[in-house]
Amino acid sequence: GAGVSQSPRYKVAKRGQDVALRCDPISGHVSLFWYQQALGQGPEFLTYFQNEAQLDKSGLPSDRFFAERPEGSVSTLKIQRTQQEDSAVYLCASSPFRVGTEAFFGQGTRLTVV
Amino acid sequence: AQRVTQPEKLLSVFKGAPVELKCNYSYSGSPELFWYVQYSRQRLQLLLRHISRESIKGFTADLNKGETSFHLKKPFAQEEDSAMYYCALKYGSNYQLIWGAGTKLIIKP
Fold it and tell me: Which of A2, B9, B25, B92 has the highest CB neighbour number within 10 Å of its CB?
């Protein structure tokens, strides 16, 4: 399809395990965003890419979180040594503009850390 | 600090009744506000933005700076309006959004 695709849709990780979440944005979209959405909450900004450049990572909660978009297309969010508080839905969004409000969202990856 | 508050986690109304989803914000700058919607098993999507002053699917929202509110309204609810609704505030740069916790709207037949 032509939408933002995220994989896996669901991930169960044991505490301490490393995980990698993938986002395939809409082709040609300049901007890419990652959000974390805890149960019963709205999305919270994690990081922003403009093409391959990570312009803002101020929302990453700790140095266990790392995101990359090496070729300005696919992005990966990596979480090292997962903790229970990392359990959330991770949303990726992309936009053809340098404006976050017009972004198209993926369906999210639900991460459960046990 | 900037904040978006949606006081109702759940709102249930009958089909044909008016709907008002509340959103209040706290922001010292010039606010730009948005409503997003997520239908069951679908993706989060932009519904409307205050600067456009548009009506989408019968919904409107007016920015009230005096009351720091951006409530979403529809005069006659339809069953297909059942969804999660999120209010969001743009702050700082062009890409930074802060979101409310969302209101689940249920339209009863």
Answer: B25
Q: What is the pLDDT of residues A30-78, one digit of tens each?
A: 999 999 999 999 999 999 999 999 999 999 999 999 999 999 999 999 9
CB contact under 8 A, A33 and B95: yes
Q: How far apart are the first and last CA of chain B?
A: 41
**Could you write out the DSSP letters of every residue in B15-60?**
TTS-EEE--EEE-SS--EEEEEEE-TTS--EEEEEGGGT--BTTBE
Please name the amino acid found at residue A3.
Answer: G
Ordered domains of chain A (ranges, CATH): 5-113 (2.60.40.10)
Take residue A61 and report the two structure tokens written for it.
């909660």
Q: Inform me whether the C-beta atom of residue A100 falls under 8 Å from chain B C-beta atoms.
A: yes
Asked if the bond preceding B7 is cis, omega within 30° of 0, the reply is no
3-state SS class at A31: strand
Q: Contact A49/A75 with Cβ under 8 angstroms? A: yes
CATH superfamily name and code, B3-108: Immunoglobulins (2.60.40.10)
Q: Does residue A43 sit at the B interface (CB-CB below 8 Å)?
A: yes
